[in-house]
Write a structure and sequence with these properties.
- It is a single chain.
- The chain has a single domain, classed as Alpha-Beta Complex (Protein-Tyrosine Phosphatase, Chain A).
- A 5-stranded mixed sheet has the order 1-2-5-3-4, with helices on both faces.
- Helix content is about 40%, strand content about 10%.
- The protein has helices at about 5-10, 40-50, 70-80, 95-105, 120-135, 140-145, 155-170; strands spanning about 25, 30-35, 55, 80-85, 110-115.
- Helix 5 (about 120-135) packs across helix 6 (about 140-145).
- The chain is an alpha/beta fold and about 200 residues long.
Length: about 200
């Protein structure tokens, strides 16, 4: 190989764009989408797709986080996305967290992405919003979510959401049969992912 051929090939190379895995969005009512936590590149893609606001349910320093909530907020600002944090853990979910989420969501422009590390908390809050906007109790909201392709089957989380919706409608909580799966999933085809 001549030096000229090598030199010409070197300078004819163009930088390649790395393929970015598109974030799977699960629709959950009018202008509301649920997902696992995005990467920085996926956040850029969401802005190009027309998402106007992001609600991050993660806590700072979670094991396996893609972006810390503070770094994500900075990137959202750069991308001209509204950003809000309503941090809580699955183990310590309270009615106050649900209220903070609903107040925050109401103040944001649609369409809104709600995300958490593996999607369980996003699924739970999406289920609450779906039930609230449709005026449904807990069991009816779970059925409506299934019709949208969502299946929240992590019993403690599902039971909390059902009880919260029932409380908000001032109806007594109902008991439900045990689930067949032990996790909530949001996957590429829809549904809910497991969070650690």
């Amino acid at each position: 190989m001549s030096d000229r051929g090598w030199f010409a090939r070197l300078f004819s190379l163009r930088p390649r764009r790395l393929a970015v895995e598109r974030l799977a969005l699960q629709p959950c009512g009018e202008g509301l989408y649920l997902a696992v936590s995005p990467t920085r590149a996926q956040l850029e893609g969401l802005a190009r797709q027309g998402i106007r606001a992001v609600v991050n349910l993660n806590t700072e320093g979670e094991t396996g986080e893609r972006l810390s909530p503070n770094v994500e907020a900075s990137w959202a600002h750069v991308l001209e996305l509204r950003h809000a944090r309503v941090s809580f853990t699955v183990e310590a979910l309270r009615s106050e967290d649900v209220e903070r989420f609903l107040v925050t969501l109401a103040a944001l422009p649609a369409p809104v992405l709600v995300h958490s590390l593996g999607g369980r908390r996003a699924a739970a809050m999406g289920l609450v919003q779906l039930g609230r906007t449709r005026g449904l109790g807990g069991a009816a909201a779970v059925c409506a979510a299934r019709e949208l392709g969502l299946a929240c089957t992590l019993d403690p989380l599902r039971h909390f959401v059902e009880a919260e919706l029932d409380r908000r409608l001032a109806t007594p909580a109902r008991s439900h049969a045990p689930s067949h799966d032990a996790s909530c999933r949001i996957s590429a085809g829809g549904g809910f992912l497991h969070e650690p």
